[in-house]
Each structure stands twice: as structure tokens, then as C-alpha cells.
Amino acid sequence: MADTFQTQIVAILPKLRVQALALTRNRAQAEDLVQDAVCNALGARDSFIPGTNFPAWMHRILRNRFISDLRKRRATTDIDDLPGDMLATKPDHEDRLAVKDLSFALARLPADQREALVLVVLQGMSYQELAEATGCAVGTAKSRVFRARRQLEAWMMGELPESDRLRQQAMALRQEVEQRRKQSGHHDAATNSAFR
Question: Does the keyword Membrane apply (predicted)?
């Protein structure tokens, strides 16, 4: 008869892969993260209390491993760097373009919002399960999913991200100031020559 603990690990592997991919945005790193999380779970097997929420326990281990790994390499990498191959190929069909846009938008979400959205929408976790898996309050879990959905909708409808919008406003203001400076410079020069 198969060990129940190992059976539960095998059963949750697909969901762990989805969560890992949402966190790392890289298939190879996601597979490594899942493998490390499973090793951690096997090592901590005695700390799991049978009858409690095994999926939440595993998702928490994977998330904690991700955070631990991130801290170790934080000096050399940035979590918000986009993979170089994200936009390398141009899709031939509109559907593929929409999927590419969605993938790009998902990658721009903050990691906690992206993770929450994937776990609730794709894996069907409840907000309570999400809160347990990520170690936050249920209200925080709901807020993360809400903000992620709202931001994705805005981006998919063509609205610029806040940082891009502010950058555009700053450039427009800079151009306006420069234009006024040039106009006042011409005016000053004309005024000065009239009084000579």
C-alpha cells in the first residue's frame, strides 16, 4: 500500500508547478523550485499534522523556499526583470497575440498579486486556502486577487501602467517647460535688441 504522505505529494505536483511558474516566470527555475519544495516537505514530514490542510502546507513550503532562494540571490538578480524571450517571437494569430499580452501583463504584476491570482483563478483555491498557503489574512488574500484582476483588466484594455503614465506626463511637462524657455529666450532677445 502506498504511503499516504507521498501520494498526497504526487497528487499536488501539478498545482505546485503552476504556483512555481507564477512565482519564477521560468520553467526550469519552476521545476527546480518544486523539487526543492518537495525535498523540504519530505524533510519536514514529521511536522505535518494529519487531517490538516495538506495543499496549503505544501504551497506554503514552496512559497517559503522561493522567498529564501530569492533572498540568497537578491544581490545579483531582480525579481522584476523580464525574461529575454518574453517578446522574442511575433505571434501569427490574434489569439496568440492576446495570450502573449496577457503573459506580459501577468509578468508585470507584483509577485504576491500574481501568485494570489494564479492560485485562486487557475487552481481554484478558496480565499481561506490562499491565506493559509501564503501566510496572510483572508482580507489581504482577497485584496491581492482584486488588485491583480483590476490591474490586468486595465492593461488588457490598453491603459498604461501607472509608472509609464507618470513617465509620459513628466516628459510632456519637460517638453512644455523647454518650449516656454525657448519662447521666453526669443522674447528676451527681441526685447533686448529693441532697447539697444
Answer: no
| Cα 11 versus chain centre, distance | 25
The CB density around residue 183, as the number of other CB atoms within 10 Å, is: 10
Q: What is the pTM of this model?
A: 0.53
Give the CA angle between residues 84, 89, 93 to the nearest 5°: 140
SS3 159: coil
Instruction: Give the architecture-level CATH label for domain 4-159.
Output: Up-down Bundle (1.20)
Q: How many CB atoms lie within 10 A of CB 123?
A: 19
75-109 tens-digit pLDDT: 554 545 545 554 444 445 566 666 777 777 888 88
Q: What residues does each domain of the chain span?
A: 4-159
Task: Provide the residue type at 125 as one letter.
Answer: M
- Residue 78 gets the label, from left (phi > 0), alpha (psi -120 to 50) or beta, of beta
HSE of 52 in the Cβ direction (CA atoms, 13 Å)?
Answer: 10
Distance of CA 116 to the CA centre of its chain: 9
Cβ-in-10-Å burial (0-12, 13-18, 19+) of 42 comes to exposed
- 16, 122 contact by CB (below 8 A): no
